[in-house]
Amino acid sequence: MPGESIDLGAAYHSYTRREPFGVVGVILPWNAPLNQAGRGIAPALAAGNTVVAKPSEFTSASLLELARLAVEECGLPPGCERRHRHGRRSGRGSRRHRDVRKVAFTGSVRAGREVGKIAAERIIP
Question: What are phi and psi of 93, to 5 degrees?
């Protein structure tokens, strides 16, 4: 992804440099899991990031099927570990892990407060 040069006058200039974050944690709600996954996962992958997605434990296994299709039919690199865990602890771990450098979240206000608190403590977007 190219950056931009910004003219700041006669003797000055600035430039932007766009780089991937690395690992993006995408936390998904129980409703419309594929739609919400597309909104969080596609931009992260397009920007060169790796994604760890955590669907709600109350949703279908459709995200696991999407991951399988992405590898087998779309050519995404294999080797992703697929886990289906239950409860708050699995989502909390993906937000706290030191390799997760950005979090995308859709869900309840209560969970949003927790995600925001952890992101603020770690100083990540």
Answer: -65, -40
Say how many C-beta atoms besides its own lie within 10 A of residue 105's C-beta: 20
CA distance 67 to 50: 13
Contact 107, 40 (CB under 8 A): no
- Cα 67 to the chain's mean position, in Å? 14
| Residue 73, CA atoms < 13 Å, CB-side half-sphere | 6
| Ramachandran angles phi, psi of 58, nearest 5° | -95, 5
| Residue type for position 121 | E
Single pTM value for the model? 0.75
Q: What is the pLDDT of residues 103-120, one digit of tens each?
A: 999 989 999 999 999 999
Integer Cα distance of 65 and 121 in angstroms: 34
